[in-house]
Write a structure and sequence with these properties.
Elements (H helix, E strand, L loop, with lengths): L1 E6 L5 H10 L7 E4 L13 H14 L7 E6 L9 E3 L6 E5 L11 H18 L27 H7 L4 H8 L2 H21 L1 H6 L10 H12 L3 H27 L4 H7 L8 H13 L8 H17 L2 H10 L7 H26 L2 E13 L2 E8 L8 E7 L1 H4 L8 E5 L6 E2 L4 E5 L6 E7 L2 E3 L6 E2 L4
Parallel strand pairs: 1-2, 1-3, 3-5
Antiparallel strand pairs: 4-5, 6-7, 6-9, 7-8, 9-10, 11-12, 12-13, 13-14
Length: 460
C-alpha cells in the first residue's frame, strides 16, 4: 500500500525529503514523493474544493484508488483545520505545513509526519469523515482526539497512543491492524521530539548567560503555544528586557545618583513600559556615566529606544494588552506575534553583550579567610531555571574599599573588578504571594516576580 506525498508550490521540497525518513514503513507499506508541485491560490478554499482538486489530480495522474494521496500545503482553508481526509474519496488527505510551532514544541517535519500517520489510520478506520463520531472531544490522549481547540494537539502528540475503544475497532480489520502496528512506533519517535525534555536538549547554551528575569521570560515564551498567551508572553519578555537593562545599567553607571535618575524618569511610583524605555534612553544620552564600560553600551541603549519607537512596540502593548479587550479571533494575536517577534529578537541580540558582561550574584554569606582575603558565597542568578548555581568568589577587600552586604544582589563583572550593588532594584527573597524565594524586580513602590507573575508589596 503506497503513500504518495505531494506539495503545493509554496512548500519547499526539502520538507518532503525531511518527512520521508520519519515515515520509515516496512512492506506492505511504502512512502514516495511526487516531484512536481501543484499551484494553490492565496485565498482560503473550502475543504470540499480542496478535495475536488485532489480528486481531479488523482484521475489525471492515474493514481491507484488504494494509494494515499497526501497534499502538504501552507495555504489556508475556510474551516481552519490542520488536516483532514476526504469524506467521499477516502484516501485523499491534506495537511497544513505551517503554524504548528504555535502549539507543539518541535520542528514542523515531525508535526507533519504525525499528521500523515494519524490521517492514514483514520482513513482506514472510518468509511467517511461523517463516521468520525469516534473522535474524542474533549481529548483523552488518543490519536483520534478531535482537538477542536488547537492547543490540545500537543496532548495527543505527546501520548502517541490509542484508546481501548479505538484499538478494538482497529482489531476488526487486518489491514488496519497491520498499519497500526507500524504507525504506533513511528508516532513514538515523533513523541520524543515534542517533549519538554527534548526542548531543553535543544536549548542554546548562551541562554545561561542571561540574567534570570530575562531568561525566564524567554523560556515562558518558548514553551507557550496558544496565540494569545504567546503574544502576551512576547510582551512580558520585552518588558523584562527593558526593565532589567534599565535597573542594572543605572545602578552600575549611576551608583551615587540612582535616586535622582529614578525621580527624573518617574520610576518611583508605578512606571509603565514606556517610562522604562525612556529611562533607558536617558542612560544612552547621559553625559559622564561612571565605569569604563559605559561607553560600550550607551550607543546600544539609544539604538534600542529608536528601534522600539520605530517598531511601535510600546504602542502595540498598550493597544492589545493595557487598553483593549481580548480579540475573539486568535489569528489577530498570531499576526501580532509574527509582526513583532523579530523586532524583539533583534533587541535581545543588541543587549546580549551587556548581559554577558555581568553576573547577577546573590550574597548569602561573606567571610574573611586569611591574609586579607575574603570569600563571598551565594547563588548566581543566571539562566532560566530557579535552581540556581552556588557561587563562591574570593576577593581582596582592600582593593574594593568595602565588603559586599549579605542578602544583597550584585552585578559582578565577569572579567573581574568591583561589584555593583543592585539592592532595592533587584532583590532575592521571599515573595509574599507564594512564600517562595524569588528574584524580584522593582516596579515603583512594589515588586514583580517574573517567574510566578506576581506583583507584590514587600513588608517594611
Amino acid at each position: 500500500m503506497e503513500i504518495q506525498l505531494l506539495r503545493s508550490a509554496e512548500v519547499n521540497e526539502s520538507l518532503l525529503q525531511d518527512v520521508v525518513p520519519i515515515l520509515d514503513f516496512e512492506p506492505p507499506f511504502e512512502v514516495n514523493t511526487i516531484p512536481t508541485p501543484i499551484p494553490l491560490d492565496d485565498v482560503a478554499e473550502s475543504m470540499g474544493d480542496r478535495f475536488l482538486r485532489m480528486k481531479t489530480l488523482r484521475s489525471d495522474r492515474r493514481i491507484a484508488d488504494d494509494c494515499f494521496l497526501i497534499l502538504l500545503t501552507s495555504k489556508p482553508n475556510t474551516e481552519n483545520w490542520f488536516s483532514s481526509f476526504d469524506s467521499s474519496e477516502r484516501r485523499n488527505v491534506f495537511i497544513q505545513t505551517n503554524d504548528w510551532e504555535h502549539y507543539v514544541d518541535c520542528e514542523n517535519k515531525y508535526a507533519v509526519a504525525y499528521g500523515v500517520l494519524a490521517n492514514c489510520l483514520q482513513c482506514l478506520m472510518f468509511k467517511s469523515s461523517e463516521d468520525f463520531d469516534w473522535a474524542h472531544d474533549p481529548p483523552i490522549g488518543c490519536v483520534n482526539d478531535m482537538c477542536s481547540w488547537k492547543p490540545d494537539i500537543t496532548l495527543k502528540m505527546r501520548t502517541a497512543d490509542i484508546c481501548p475503544d479505538c484499538l478494538a475497532k482497529c482489531e476488526e480489520n487486518d489491514v488496519v491492524r497491520k498499519f497500526l502496528d507500524q504507525a504506533l512506533p513511528l508516532m513514538g519517535k515523533v513523541r520524543e521530539q515534542t517533549l519538554f525534555t527534548a526542548s531543553l536538549q535543544r536549548k542554546s547554551p548562551n541562554r545561561d548567560l542571561f540574567p534570570f528575569p530575562v531568561a525566564i521570560t524567554a523560556r515562558k515564551l518558548r514553551q507557550t503555544r496558544e496565540p494569545l498567551r504567546r503574544f502576551l508572553s512576547l510582551i512580558d519578555h520585552f518588558d523584562s528586557l527593558i526593565r532589567t537593562t534599565t535597573l542594572m545599567a543605572a545602578r552600575i553607571y549611576l551608583p551615587d545618583s540612582f535616586d535622582d535618575f529614578a525621580v527624573r524618569n518617574k520610576l518611583s511610583l508605578r512606571p509603565s513600559l514606556g517610562i522604562w524605555l525612556r529611562g533607558l534612553q536617558d542612560l544612552g544620552r547621559h553625559q559622564g556615566l561612571d565605569g569604563v564600560t559605559s561607553a560600550d553600551f550607551q550607543e546600544s541603549f539609544e539604538l534600542i529606544f529608536r528601534k522600539a519607537e520605530e517598531d511601535k512596540l510600546v504602542h502595540i502593548r498598550n493597544e492589545k494588552r493595557a487598553h483593549g479587550y481580548i480579540d475573539v479571533h486568535d489569528d489577530s494575536y498570531k499576526n501580532n506575534f509574527d509582526d513583532y517577534q523579530q523586532a524583539i529578537s533583534n533587541i535581545t541580540s543588541i543587549l546580549s553583550k551587556f548581559f554577558n558582561a555581568f553576573w547577577l550574584i546573590y550574597v548569602k554569606q561573606d567571610d574573611f579567610i586569611s591574609h586579607g582575603e575574603a570569600c563571598a558565597s551565594g547563588w548566581r542568578l543566571m539562566g532560566d531555571h530557579p535552581d540556581f548555581v552556588q557561587e563562591e568568589i574570593r576577593y581582596n577587600p582592600k582593593e574594593w574599599g568595602s565588603r559586599p552586604f549579605v542578602n544583597h544582589v550584585y552585578a559582578v563583572p565577569q572579567h573581574g573588578g568591583a561589584w555593583f550593588d543592585l539592592h532595592n532594584s533587584i532583590i532575592y527573597g521571599k515573595c509574599p504571594e507564594c512564600e517562595h524565594n524569588r528574584v524580584l524586580m522593582a516596579d515603583g513602590e512594589q515588586y514583580l516576580d517574573p517567574y510566578g507573575g506576581h506583583r507584590v508589596r514587600l513588608p517594611q
